[in-house]
Structure formats: C-alpha cells, structure tokens
Amino acid sequence: MALRTVPPATVGARPRRSRGVRNPARWAHVPLGLTALVLLFPFYWTVVMATNTNADFYRRPPEVVPGTHLLDNVSSVLTSLNFFGSMANTFIVAASVTVLVLFFDSMAAFAFAKYEFPGKRFLFALMMLFFMLPAQLSTVPQFITMSELGWVGTLQALIVPAAANAFGIFWMRQYIASAIPDEILDAATVDGCGFFRQYLLVVLPVIRPGLAFLGIYTFVAAWNDYVWPLIVLVNPDMLTLQVALSQLNTTRGTDYAVVMAGALMAIVPLVVVFLLFSKQFVADSVKGAVR
C-alpha cells in the first residue's frame, strides 16, 4: 500500500481565511466613533454660535458652520467683564482645591485601606452617608460658618470647605486597596518606615494614575462650580469665571453669541489641563503595567 506524501507548505504563503468569517474588531470602532461625535457635538455647537451673531441664533434653519464674528464677540466679552481677573481667581481656587484634595484624600484613603483603628468601619460608613446626601443641604450651615469666620466674599470660602471630599477618599481607598499589596507595607515597616514615609516612598509612586484622574475630576468640578461662589462671593473683584459670565445675561436681553464666546474662552484652560494630565495618566498606567 503506497503512502501519499503531503507537499510542504510554501514558505511565506499567506494563510487562507474562510469567506464566512469576519473580523468583529473592525466594527468595534463604529459605535465608539458615533459616541464620540455625540459627545463632541455640544463643543462644536459652542464654536459655531461663538463665531456667529445673535441674529443667527434665531435663524431657521440655524447656522451649522462657524462664522466670522468670533473676534467681535470676544471683544464684547472683554469689555463687559473683568474676564482675566475672574479667570485668575478661578484658577487660584481650582488649583488650590485640587492640591488639597489630592493630599488629604489620598492620606485618608491610605489609612482607611491599609490600617486598622477603632471606629474605622463606622467612620467610613458615615463618610459614605455624607457622600450620598445632596450638597445643597449644607449650603446654609456652611454660609453661617463662613460668616462667623469672616470669610464671606473671599476665596478662602471656596477653597477650605472643598479641601477634602468623600468621593475622593472613596475612590483612592478602592485604588490603594487593590494596587498596593500588604507585603510591601510590611517590608517597609520592617525597614523602619512610619506612616508618612510609607505614604511618600511606597504609596505615592504607585497611585499616580489614580491621583491623575482625581486631579482632573477635581479641577474641572472646581472650575465649573457656580452655585456656592454665587452665594458666598459678594465682592465684584473676587468673582470666579462662572459667576462673572452670568452677568452677561442682562435685563435688556441676552446676546447668546457673546455668552457662547465667553463659554468657549472658559473651556480653553480645561482642555489644556486635560491634555496635560491625560498624557501623565496614560504614561503612569503603562509604567505601572510594566512593573
């Protein structure tokens, strides 16, 4: 009985693909692209309205392409408001709040995640209860406290109450609990590291991606805060950007093109901060994966 030999495969030959098999990963970008378009449309519409006139806002059908009146609208914003002064106040508040939140929340989260102390579970449950309560419930007692301290109308009234928050503690507690093994802390304790040295030398290098996300979230929230600054800031020279932009709505009417131009100018620093921190976030995530 003769044996049939199978000829060897040709070197470099491309493997056959079944005609009925399709690559599903190729279509995964379609819903992602559609979602990105939906999310980016409000920003595009802001650009369109900021570059047109107020009459174009009421035109039917509306304008869908950018116009040529951006400089005129920006000039109206700058002449109507102390825009750069308000932006400086907003940046001071947002940067100060972000630094304080990153420091206090990460330290508290480290204690909750890796240390045992009396009342730990009760304090964590109480913190989560405060996290679920609406922020508006604390407006009146917080204003009374600021009035007693003499901080009404100052930036301290915006920075100090926001120096720590329950969301940041909860987020960093979950991150630290999963990212830092107990064995590393035990080894640091054997080497003589106390709480602060463990936090600085062991915890901080590992949790930088989590801090990057919390920093972006906190900075954007502080930058866009409107209700509490509107209540507590009574000095026109100390207004934040969102409160100052609300003054563009006058009793004689609202020029929506000018309002949109001011909103567009207020978005630019947020985009810059996001691009800077997002690169750090991705780089630290990849570095942590390699480790």
TrEMBL record:
Location in the cell reads:
Cell membrane
Q: What is its main location?
A: membrane
* Assigned keywords, A-Z: Cell membrane, Membrane, Transmembrane, Transmembrane helix, Transport
Secretion signal: which residues? Answer: none
Q: Indicate how the chain sits in the lipid bilayer.
A: Multi-pass membrane protein
According to the record, the segments passing through the membrane are 27-45, 91-113, 122-144, 150-171, 199-220, 257-277
ABC transmembrane type-1 domain mapped to chain residues:
87-277
Q: Show the Gene3D superfamilies listed in the entry.
A: MetI-like (1.10.3720.10)
Superkingdom = Bacteria
Q: Which family does it belong to?
A: Belongs to the binding-protein-dependent transport system permease family.
Q: Which PANTHER family match?
A: ABC TRANSPORTER PERMEASE PROTEIN MG189-RELATED, ABC TRANSPORTER PERMEASE PROTEIN MG189-RELATED-RELATED
Protein name as it appears in the record = Carbohydrate ABC transporter permease
Q: What does UniProt list as this organism's lineage?
A: Bacteria, Bacillati, Actinomycetota, Actinomycetes, Kineosporiales
